[in-house]
Amino acid sequence: MSDFSISSETLRKQAQTAHDAGFTQLGENLRRAAELTRVPNERLLKMYELLRPGRSTQAELEAVAQELLDVYDAPITSAYVREAVAVYAARKLFRM
């Protein structure tokens, strides 16, 4: 697995390069990826599973967003999950 890892520093540098070249969305995606290097792989996979439509309740996804902020210092990714919460609520994609 270590053959496929990348450091948060490398991702942040790539994000800045993308942003400077006018690829702002790519830069934002790379910044989120840099944040996610702090999340253990097992936990990250569980979070990903919860983000699949119909796999979580609203409270579960809100807890994931808060965990990303409080435990992993990942404010960009936390905001991204909060956006997903709003979309899932509007489209009724939460598990009942």
Summed up:
The protein has helices spanning 8-20, 24-36, 41-51, 58-70, 75-91. With 96 residues, the protein is mainly α. The chain has 2 domains: 1-37; 40-96, Hypothetical Protein Yqey, Chain: A, domain1, CATH 1.10.1510.
Describe the structure.
The chain has helices spanning 8-20, 24-36, 41-51, 58-70, 75-91. It is mainly α and 96 residues long. It folds into 2 domains: 1-37; 40-96, Hypothetical Protein Yqey, Chain: A, domain1 (Orthogonal Bundle), CATH 1.10.1510.20. Helix 4 runs antiparallel to helix 5 (75-91). It is globular and about 40 Å long. It starts with 7 loop residues before the first helix and ends in a 5-residue tail after the last helix.
Main attributes of the structure:
mainly alpha; Hypothetical Protein Yqey, Chain: A, domain1; 5 helices; 0% strand
> The CATH topology of the largest domain is what?
Hypothetical Protein Yqey, Chain: A, domain1
Mean pLDDT: 95
Q: Low-confidence runs (pLDDT<50, min 5 residues)?
A: none
* Name of the CATH architecture of the largest domain: Orthogonal Bundle
Strand content: under 5%
Q: Categorize the overall geometry.
A: globular
In whole angstroms, the N-to-C terminal distance is: 36 Å
Order of helices and strands: HHHHH
Helix-residue proportion: 55-70%
Class per helix and strand makeup: mainly alpha
Number of beta-strand segments: 0
Number of structural units classed as domains: 2
Rg on CA atoms, Å: 14 Å
CATH class value of the largest domain? Mainly Alpha
Query: Number of helical segments?
Result: 5
Biggest pleated-sheet summary: none
CATH superfamily of the largest domain: Propanediol/glycerol dehydratase, small subunit
